Amino acid sequence: MRASHPLEGSVAIQGAKNSALKLMAAALLAPGTTRLHQVPDITDVAIMGEVLTAIGAEVSRDPDGALVISTPEELIPVAPYELVEKMRASVVVFGPLLARQGFARVSLPGGDDFGHRPIDIHLRAFGELGASFVTEHGYVEGRCGRLVGREIAFEFPSHTATDNVLMAAVTARGTTVIENAAREPEVQDLAAMLIAMGAQISGAGTSRIEIEGVDALHPVDHTTIPDRVEAATFLAAVGIAGGSITLDGVRPEHMDMLLEKLVTMGMSIHRGEGSLTASIGERLRSVDIATLPYPGVATDYKPLLVTMLSVANGVAIASENVFAGRFGYIDELRRMGADITIEGHHAIVRGRDQLSGAPVRARDIRAGAALVIAGLGADGVTEVSGVEHIDRGYELFVEKLRGLGAEITREFD
Ligand code: UD1
Questions:
Q1: Which CATH architecture has domain 7-14+226-403?
Q2: What pTM does this model have?
Q3: Where do the structural domains in the chain lie, given as residue ranges?
Q4: How many whole angstroms from 92 Cα to the centroid of ligand 1?
Q5: How many Å apart are CA 216 and CA 299, to the nearest integer?
Q6: Which of 27, 264, 287, 342 is 20 to 30 Å from the Cα of 178, by its Cα?
Q7: Residue positions annotated with a catalytic role
Q8: Is 17-223 a domain of CATH 3.40.640.10?
C-alpha cells in the first residue's frame, strides 16, 4: 500500500469477533438449532466452526448469512490440539461441555505472541463448582456430576474465564456468584443470549454476576453486537491518513474511554444513533495511555494507538497492563522509522513527522491491522506479510479500506 489520500465515506462495522466465538460455544448448551446473526466471515469463526463440528454439532450459513448451529443431544466432549493450537479461544467450549456432558477433554493452549497465557482462573473456578481435573499428554480432562453453584472470586477479571464460567454455571444446581468478573460488552452479549435461552443471570456488565441455575436451556436466534475493535481500527486509520469517515452499525457507548482519548489526540468525533463520524483536521497530539480491563482502554486497541502516537506531536508513554508480552509489533514499527523505546511494560513513543514505508510482518491480528494503518500514513510503499493473522479477525479489511479511498491492494492469499 502507499501513503493514502485523506479517507472519505462510510463503512459498515462487522459483528464482534470476541462475542461471536463465545455465542457459538453457547449454542452447545441447547440441543436444537441456534441462529446467530452478524457473525463475521473470518478465520477465527471458521476455526470455532471446526471445533463445534469436532464436538458433534453441524455448522453452516443460511442464505441470509446467519450462522446456523445444530446441536445434538449427545456431544463428543473433546477439543483437539490441532484446533486449540490454532485458536486459544477454543477453550471456551470447556464450560458448556462440563455443563452438558459432565466431562471435557480440552487441549491446553500453548503460548502465543502475547506471551504466557494460562487458563488457571478457568480451571480453579470449575473446580469450585465441583469439577475435578487431570492433566496429561497436553490435555486437561475435567469431570463432574451436575455442577453446584458457589461464590467464586476471580484473581483477575479474565474475559474468557468469565464467559466460560458463566456457561458452566447456567445449569448448575443453586446460585453461582462471580466476583471480579470481566465487564466487557461481549460478556454482556453472551449473558443476553443465555438469558434468552432461559438462563437466570443478573449483573452481567458489572463486576458481580449472579447466576441462578436452571435445568435446561433452549436454542434461540441472536444478533451479535458490533465489533468495537474493528471500529477502533477504522478510527485509527482516519487519524493517520486524515479525512472524515462514518462508521455504521456501531455502539459508541462501548468505546467511551477510547473516544475520549481520540478527542484528546485532536480528532473530532460525532456520535449518532448506531453510528460514529470521525475526522481530523490537524496533526495528532500525543497522549499517555494505559491498558486495563473494560471499561479501561482495551489492550486490543493498543497497537493501533501506539501507531497513531508514532506520528503524533509530542512524547507519550503507552503502558500495557493486561498482557505482559504484547510488544511484538514494535520492532516492525521501528523498521518504518518509529521512535519507540521499551522500558518494562511501558513503551515510550516519540512522534515523528512521518513513517517510512517498508516491508513488515504481522505477528498477530491487531498488530497486523496496526501495521496496515501505519502504511496508510507512511511515505512510499509498505508491504505487510503475515496477512493470515489479519484474516483471523477482519472481514474484507482491504476492500473496506479501499472503499474509503485508501491505496491498498492484496497481492496473494
Ligand atoms: C480476551 C480477548 C482478547 C483481549 C483480551 C483482553 C477473546 C477471544 N479474546 O482474551 O482479544 O485482548 O480478552 O481484553 O475474547 N489470565 C490468567 N489466567 C487465566 C486467564 C487469564 O493469568 O486463566 C491472564 C492473562 O494471561 C492476561 C490477563 O489474565 O494477562 C487477561 O486475559 P483474559 O482477559 O483472559 O484474555 P482473554 O479472555 O484470553
A1: Alpha-beta prism (3.65)
A2: 0.97
A3: 7-14+226-403, 17-223
A4: 12
A5: 36
A6: 27
A7: 112
A8: no
